[in-house]
Structure formats: C-alpha cells, structure tokens
C-alpha cells in the first residue's frame, strides 16, 4: 500500500480526516440547517450507521430535483485540490454536450500530471456515428483547448462500456504506484459519479453497494470530494463534484426547467434542407434564421435531446410562432418555465458556417452543416456560449445511402465495445 497517498475514508477539502460526510454527495453532515448541504433530520442522525443526507435520500428515493447549494468557486477549489493530490486524473467529458463540458482550466490545475480523457455518454450519439471518428475528433478538440491526454477513450458509464479499457490504460500509466489515487474530474453532470459507482460495483453480481455516490440527471448532485478505496481493483478513486464551465443553458435555469434539455436517450437527429428566408426553431430556446446560402439550399443536421421540438418556419413568422406557441407545443421550455427563459433576455449573433462544420450551443446541442456554406442569424438566451467547430459526427454520416455506417475496422471496435 502506498502509505503517503492513503487518505482516511472521508476527508474535507483540506484533506483533514472527518468522519461525518455524506457518502452520497460528499457534503459534511449536519443537523441544524435543512436548507444547507449535508442536512440530516435529528431522528435519522440518532440511528447512527450508513446515514446519507436528506437531499441524497430524496434524489435516490423520490427522484427529486434538488438544486445545488455550493457555489462555482468552491467547486473549482475542490477540483483543484483533487487534481493536485491525485496520481492520475480521468477528465470526463459529455459527448452529448462537448461545448458545455470541456474546460481548459483543468489543464492548468493538472500541472503536467498524466490524465485520460473519457468521452462519456457515447450511447447518446446516433447509432450510425463512427466511434473511431468521434474519438479522433475529441482528441483534436482537446488539443485545441491545450489539453494533452495520455489517452482518449469513449465510454458509456451507465452500462460500463469502455471502462475495462479505461482501467487497463490507467494501471499502465501509473504502474510504479501500488495503489494509485485517481481523481474523477470534469464539468458537472458529465457522469463522473455514475462512472465511480460502476467501479464500486465492479464484478459484483449485486451491483454497487448502497453507499456509493448519488447520481441524478441534474448538475450539482455531488457537493464534496468523495474518496473511495477500491482494493479489489488496486486503485483509490476520488469522485469530485465537477466544475461549472459557464455559459451552459442548463446551468442558467432552475433544475425542473433544465431537465428536458438534458438528454437521457440517444440524441434526436434530423436533417433539414434550408433556404434563405427559413428559420429553424429548437424548441423555444434557439432560433436559427438562414440569412444566406452559397447555392440553392443547404442541409442542416440537428442533434438535440429528444424532448426538444424542432420546427421549421419562415424568417418573417418565427417570432410570431414563438410568441404564440412557446411553452405549448414549442418545448422546452414548458409553460411553467417560459417566463424563466424569457427573463434571461436574448442575444443575437450572425454565424458563418462551412460544410463539415458544427454550430454548438452549450446546454442545448448542435447543428451540423452539409452540402453548402450558409450564414445564420442565431437568437439564444443571454449568457449561453456557442462555438463553431469541425463536425463531431463525421462527414461520413448522412452523406447518402449507407454513408456513416462504420467501416469494417470500426465494426470490430464496436462489437468489442457493445
Ligand atoms: N446515457 C448516459 N447517461 C449517463 C452516462 N453516465 C452518466 N449518465 C447520466 O448523466 C446524469 C449525470 O450523472 P452523474 O454521474 O450524476 O454526473 P456527475 O455530476 O458528473 O457526477 C445522470 O442522469 C446519469 O444517469 C452514460 O454513459 N450514458
Ligand atoms: Mg457527481
Ligand atoms: Zn448527500
């Protein structure tokens, strides 16, 4: 056992021993303030063993959507401490929202330590996407952000796919350490706790023990660094709450209003042929108005949560359509959340896109241009970040009959992975 690296089972953000932390979210347990993190009703506290906080209890048992009570600066501090302390880091990125979940600050905090980038939620990509292409694409995106991982892998943490490869690659990277400490870091809601839980229940027929980290569809579930010793895998894991990358629409809305934007099934992908004077509405949260096309028409592939209603209308009518129908059939936002979206205000920008480029909207999804270049007038809620990038789901996808079907060498990888 690597003595200097071995931490007590629970520790606070300074790494001091602390016995009363919630094993679900990492918050210090307390019986005084029901609104603060880690609250346990006194009668539960008195029962003693295996206590989790009220918030974790409600998320796990009632699927409650609880908002986070810890601020972004504190989360950043926890991530920084975990990255300084670890031997190796797994930087987890959400493949359904790379724009909203990649944060270059992590690179600074790693200060040259080895890390593996895990492109998680690969199961949400359209089934015809080529994983080897997406992996190469992710590698290039990381490089563009100044991140140089030792390895880049795709995974589906909900079903444990890709995680054997992650474990083997990790043990290979830190083979000189007998019991390496691995920090699971990245943005909030990328699936870090799901991944940690999977390793906790590794090869246990009964799954992870009840005490593992709490998982929910919303960002901000984990509130402190959770340390887990996994002697069966010869590793120690530190699940971190993750950092808030900024500019993600789902972080600007209340938990209930953000939920329909967070995909839990494979992304809805549809193809729209667009001419100037036409507008595509992504629910009531984005309008893409075609200002110009180099050619008779252009093709836009839309990748959004299946709960987002995509509607094509005309440039002169879209505001009226939005005004009359946002919250009714033009969702999300649903009726109760329309006011919340409107209160953010709107920002407009004009974006030029070449064929083979994506326009990604953090916390919403992305559109990809095929066939002809076009210029879009984009309207989105104030504060939401966008990015123009090379297409995530490669040019072979939807180019014609049979296009996008993985080549034979991809098939081998997919068969092994699935
Ligand atoms: N489809 C899919 N969903 C995932 C995957 N990993 C995590 N999730 C879901 O993403 C949401 C956030 O997961 P969680 O582990 O709490 O994220 P964390 O904030 O990074 O710890 C939950 O609804 C998970 O079920 C995955 O590989 N595929
Ligand atoms: Mg978590
Ligand atoms: Zn908790």
Question: What does this entry look like structurally?
Answer:
- This protein is an alpha+beta fold.
- Helix content is 26%, strand content 23%.
- The chain is built from 13 helices and 16 strands.
- The strands form three sheets. Strands 3-2-1-4-6-5 form a six-stranded mixed β-sheet, sandwiched between helices. A five-stranded antiparallel β-sheet has the order 7-10-14-13-16.
- The site of zinc ion has 8 residues, from helix 2.
Please indicate the percent range of residues in DSSP E strands (runs of 2 or more): 15-25%
Lateral arrangement of strands in the main beta sheet: 3-2-1-4-6-5
Q: Write down the secondary-structure element order.
A: HHHEHHEHEHEHEEHHEEEEEHHEEEEEH
- The CATH architecture of the largest domain can be named as 3-Layer(aba) Sandwich
**Principal-axis shape:** globular
* Overall pLDDT score: 86
Tell me the count of domains.
2
Tally of helical segments: 13
Measure the end-to-end span: 35 Å
Question: Could you name the ranges where pLDDT drops below 50 across 5 or more consecutive residues?
Answer: 1-18, 398-418
Itemize the secondary structure elements and their pairings.
Elements: H1 42-47, H2 54-62, H3 72-85, E1 88-94, H4 98-101, H5 105-110, E2 115-120, H6 131-144, E3 151-154, H7 163-173, E4 181-186, H8 192-200, E5 226-230, E6 235-239, H9 249-252, H10 255-258, E7 268-274, E8 278-282, E9 286-293, E10 298-304, E11 310-314, H11 318-325, H12 335-343, E12 346-353, E13 357-361, E14 365-370, E15 374-381, E16 386-390, H13 408-417
Parallel strand pairs: 1-2, 1-4, 2-3, 4-6
Antiparallel strand pairs: 5-6, 7-10, 8-9, 8-11, 9-15, 10-14, 12-15, 13-14, 13-16
């Amino acid at each position: 056992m690597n003595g200097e690296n071995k931490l007590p089972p629970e520790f606070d953000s300074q790494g001091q021993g602390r016995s009363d932390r919630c094993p679900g979210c990492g918050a210090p347990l307390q019986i005084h303030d029901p609104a603060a993190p880690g609250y346990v009703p006194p009668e539960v506290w008195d029962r003693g063993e295996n206590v989790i906080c009220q918030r974790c209890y409600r998320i796990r048992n009632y699927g409650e959507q609880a908002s986070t009570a810890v601020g972004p600066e504190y989360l950043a501090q926890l991530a920084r401490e975990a990255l300084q302390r670890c031997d190796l880091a797994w930087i987890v990125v959400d493949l359904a929202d790379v724009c909203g979940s990649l944060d270059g600050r992590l690179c600074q905090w790693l200060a040259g330590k080895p890390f593996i980038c895990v492109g998680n939620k690969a199961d949400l990509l359209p089934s015809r996407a080529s994983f080897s292409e997406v992996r190469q694409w992710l590698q290039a995106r990381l490089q563009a952000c100044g991140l140089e991982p030792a390895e880049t892998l795709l995974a589906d943490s909900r079903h444990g796919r890709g995680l054997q490869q992650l474990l083997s690659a990790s043990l290979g990277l830190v083979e000189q350490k007998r019991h390496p400490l691995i920090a699971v870091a990245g943005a909030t809601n990328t699936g870090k706790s799901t991944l940690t839980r999977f390793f906790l229940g590794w090869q246990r027929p009964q799954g992870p023990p009840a005490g593992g980290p709490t998982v929910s569809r919303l960002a901000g579930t984990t509130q402190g660094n959770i340390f887990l010793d996994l002697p069966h895998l010869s590793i120690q894991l530190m699940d971190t709450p993750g950092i808030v990358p900024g500019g993600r629409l789902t972080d600007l809305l209340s938990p209930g209003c953000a939920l329909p934007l967070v995909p839990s099934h494979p992304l809805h992908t549809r193809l729209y042929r667009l001419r100037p004077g036409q507008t595509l509405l992504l629910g009531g949260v984005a309008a893409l108005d075609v200002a110009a096309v180099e050619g008779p028409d252009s093709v836009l592939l839309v990748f959004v949560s299946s709960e987002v209603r995509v509607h094509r209308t005309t440039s002169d009518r879209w505001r009226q359509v939005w005004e009359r129908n946002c919250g009714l059939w033009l969702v999300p936002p649903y009726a109760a959340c329309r006011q919340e979206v409107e209160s953010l205000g709107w920002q407009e920008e004009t974006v030029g896109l070449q064929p083979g480029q994506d326009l990604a909207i953090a916390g919403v999804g992305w559109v990809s241009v095929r066939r002809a270049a076009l210029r879009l007038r984009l309207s989105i809620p104030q504060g939401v970040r966008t990015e123009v990038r090379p297409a995530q789901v490669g040019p072979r996808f939807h180019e014609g009959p049979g296009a996008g079907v993985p080549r034979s060498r991809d098939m081998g990888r997919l068969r092994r992975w699935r």
